[in-house]
Amino acid sequence: MEGDSISEARGLPGLTSQRGRQVTLTEEGRQFQIDIKQKKYQKDLKELKKGVDIIKRLEVAGEEENETLKEAYIQWKRTYIDLVQTSSELQGLLSEVDLQQHLSRHQDVMPELNTMKAEMEKKLEPTHKTQEVQPSVASSRCSVRSKISLLRLEDAQRRAELEARAAAAKKRLQMERQKQELQWKMQELELDTEREILKAKQGALLKFEEEEGMCAPGIPIQRSKEEEDAMRASELPVPKSKLEKQEASSKIAVPEQAKACKESETSNDPSPSTAADVLSSLVSVLKDQNKQSHLPLIEPGVFSGSIDKFPLWLKAFETYVEHRTSSPVERLHFLSRYTEGDAHSAIAGFLHLRTSDVYVKAKEKLVARYGNDFLIASSYLKRLREWSAVKSGDSKGLQRLADFLEHCHMASSAIPGMRALDDPHTIQMVLKKLPVYIADRWKRLVDSSVYGPTPHYPSFADFVQLVSTEGRIACGPVSSGAQSEESPPARNIRGKAHAFTSSHEKCEACGHRSEEQRATQQVTTARAVRRPCVICTEPHDVHTCKKFMALRLDERKEEVMKKRLCRGCLKPGHIWRDCRRRDKCDKCQMSHPTLLHDDKLMKTTASAGSHDKTSSGKQHGGDTQVKASSLQSTAQSTGDVGVSNCHTMIVPVKLYHENQPEQPIITYALLDPQSDASFVTEALCDVLQPESIEVELQLSTLNGRKIVRCSSVSGLVVESSEGGPAVDLPTLYSRHEIPADRELIPRRETCLKWPHLRQVAEKMPEYHADAEIGLLLGVNCPRIIKPREVIPGEEDDPWAVRTLLGWGIVGYVSEGEPTGCFYVGTGSPAIE
């Protein structure tokens, strides 16, 4: 009876009273009953475990036949029956989720309890048999009732478990069907959405074409194949869903709630407002795409191996190339296209591979070689160490340094190795390159930070902010106005220049060319363009050609005639009559190459020349000396080779491009106040790569006027070789060489020979044997050629002049009389 009542209670949402009336529990009542049953279940479980321990202790004590042990057996079995009954009642009250958890815990406990129960029944069996010899009616009835009750409880428990499992399986099947139904409905909704989007897109295209005038009336719109297929699919009837087929085959009834949900969801078509929003958004997207299509194409630059430029280049490459294609082969092709030099050579071997990871390996190699944080940080620090000192008044130089410091500060946030910039020694190193007034302000800032409420040394960010502020102030309107008054802008030279270089005119007139000048010219020519030999096509001059030197004199002359070479310099393109750079013979000191020297011809010429010289001396003795006085030769008959008896204003300078102040070149500048234009050699232009424009220049010299083709160069900056304010040069004109002898460069040892010049001996710049004369600065550079200090000496003594670029010496510095020039030629102009 008890088992039947339990099973009936299990299937109802409430309990059954003693009179058989169904009692419906509220949610609070059900929860109250669940709490009571759970406490009772836990209590019985603890008593069973405790009873097992008591029985084991009694068995160990040897009291198996004792009444105490038998009572313990009987009490444990009663508790076991209560536990099973409580579990059955609890199963009828729990929800599906809680029921599964309870059954799981109950099934874990029951095997051990059932084993213990079986052992106890075996131990109690002999006792029951002895009692059956003289059984009593009451005991037999009690035993039978207990067994029946126990069997009913076990049956009720198994029945409840099976019912719970069946209900859970049924509910699980129902949930799976609902889930599958929702998936199919989502697919149908996606198809409907795509159809609506296609319709809205067509309408947007029509509207856009009407607004832009791209589509004339009556012309059908050309659709793609995909759009036509989608339109045809949208016109087809919607097939019966898989859910309906499954329901028809299995005859399983779907819950009414799911059917209602299906009807409500299938009836929800896109509203007109939603379609209008989609239409407007598509129109805006198409307009944005049309605007973007008219923008210029953005490409990453070509990377050649500069470590400090690698991070920016890599970001640009990943943004504009890597993210737009997923093919490793295409990425590798573009990586090869946008690299050159050493960077391209590093990944050239990967171009032969076609594996999926070839691009990743090539990129990793570039990152390992040029993207190492330590290498990038070292590159930035090296540029800081090699940065030229910024002198007082150089506002643009200060601003360039401030910009580079800001670049370093921004890079330090992404490159861990650049945290060394916060080191006080690094800041002190940069501080030495700044003007004194900025260093004083930094000292005040350091003092206020170190001795402030929270003592600390200012960071590199504070230093960058200070330099940036000073650079902005230096380039402000007040400073710029003062600077413009001090150095007026360069005049616009419209194709005319007047160059008067007296020293070179004298030298060209008398035909004198020293060994050092010829060597310098050869080095300059070699730096500019190394032309092959016309005799053997090897990269050397004809003067050093072994094949040409091995020929006889008549064969050399025949080869010169055949190759149409000049007999004055052994170069093609002109004849001996028009040669302006004739070589000097080492044997006779005449104006012809040494390889064409003819002893027989020289003997005949010498005898005739001596007769002409004697007769002309008698007729024009006084006039020759007067003409030679106007053109003095710089050569001296006695003394060491390479030492001149005359000096002029030729000073060493640092020349660099305004965008690359960290890469200066040491060269000599000829300060010529007789020239209203400035010139630079083509060799320096090839190295510095300034902005240039091809122009025609009219040169006016002592030999007349002539139009020459050259390049107009801008963007160069010059400063003293020993440090000083930087000066932006005006427009320069490129020439093959600057016509000045190296013997004219002032030396320190010259100052020691004259008492009034000894005071500037230590101030004279050092002599640079490897530097060429690459600049000629005229009166269009007034800040540079203007004398700042002069030490005149006596009437005929040489004098010292200090300019913005340093000290120089002008005048005759030899104690002997200068050698007169008895040959006056109509040579080339100074800058030709």
From TrEMBL:
Residues 1-24, 220-275, 599-640 are annotated as: Disordered. Keywords: Coiled coil. It comes from Amphibalanus amphitrite. PANTHER family: PHD-TYPE DOMAIN-CONTAINING PROTEIN (PTHR47331), RIBONUCLEASE H (PTHR47331:SF5). InterPro entries: DUF1759. Residues 150-192 form a coiled coil. Signal peptide: none annotated. This is CCHC-type domain-containing protein. Residues 15-24, 626-639 have a biased composition (Polar residues). Residues 223-232 have a biased composition (Basic and acidic residues). The keyword Protease does not apply.
